[in-house]
Design a protein that fits this description.
8-stranded antiparallel beta barrel; 1 helix; elongated
Length: about 220
Amino acid sequence: MKKSVMMAVLAIVLGTAQAEAQGLVKNLMGRMYGGPKVEANLSGFFLSDIPGVKSKMNVGGSVGGFFGFRVTENFSVQEDILMHYQVSQLEQDGKKGDLSYLGAELAFYAVGHWNVYGNNRLIVGAGPFVGYGLNAKYKMDDNETDLYEKNGNGDKVFQPFSVGAGIMLGYELGCGLQINASYKIGILDQLDAPKDKASMLPSRISLGVAYRFRK
């Protein structure tokens, strides 16, 4: 008799624990969101101790996606995963050349979002990012230089890592379609071999569209 009672109690406890676990998982899954993102970007550099050289922003593009978790009704943490193609123009003594870059980036945002005009939402975010360059080349006239290629001394013009911070502003329609704008600035010098004499800090302005899949 006692054994039957204990088995019944155990079955109730396990059933309750299973139901609570399923409810917790369902709640967590319901707080997750994500979707694709496509952007056009303008990128350039802040130059220091490089006399006579000017950096002008040029047009590139980005593609990837975002994933987030709603902590509260008006606050989320979000991660953007993007592939960037960036083009910047460098001018020295009247001669112009294009610096092209291809790389991957992870950006982490603390995001606030508020309902406006019914189901539409205003989105504001800020946070750090880290990137890694896959290819970087500088072309002037018919001459092209691989900025990641080592010279005879084992030095490179550029180093591939980038670290910085960014801000994001977005507007989401009730259907999940978003319009986003962002500004990011690097705090890690992109120069490798000549970094003791000069510095190049990257910056980028982006404008794009995204779609948030809804639960």
